[in-house]
Amino acid sequence: MRASRRVLARFVAPAATALLATLAVAPMASAAPMGTTAGTVAGTTAKVCDNICIDGVRVATHDGYDRVVFDLGTGTLPHVGIAQTTDPSYGMPSGESKNLSISGSSYLFADFYPARSGDYPDTNPVVKPFDLPTVKGVQFLYEQHSTPAFGITLNGPVSHYNVFTLTAPNRVVIDVYR
CA angle, corner 87, sides to 159 and 80, nearest 5? Predict the structure, then answer.
């Protein structure tokens, strides 16, 4: 009987403490809806997303391809839908048709679901021009129903593209092959 009490005290007590700590913290973390502030870090205010946030975009060129990386916050990785076209126009949620700001020979349109733009439009340029062999620019288009949309301007020959996700940290990668 004493041995079983020692075993219970050794395993159950720490587990119960961790569970109680989780229950005490979890409602605070999930109580902030999209668009509310989560606090300040180094003088900036971060928004809390109800889905994974898109925090930024960066590009690099490699031998035979250009890479576009969408940096994501914490959460479940989104599904990424891609459409390739030679037409720079896209439809806004209002029904209005617009063109990407940077022209090229072809375009990729990327939708992330479920995800949020969070404070991306506030902390990043909406249009980011690049001078890579194939990738000429990335543009934030809009967000509707937890689906942020981006346009990627390409120039020159594009043989194909590959989309994949990586973790630690979370990101979506689009490799565009020449």
Answer: 65
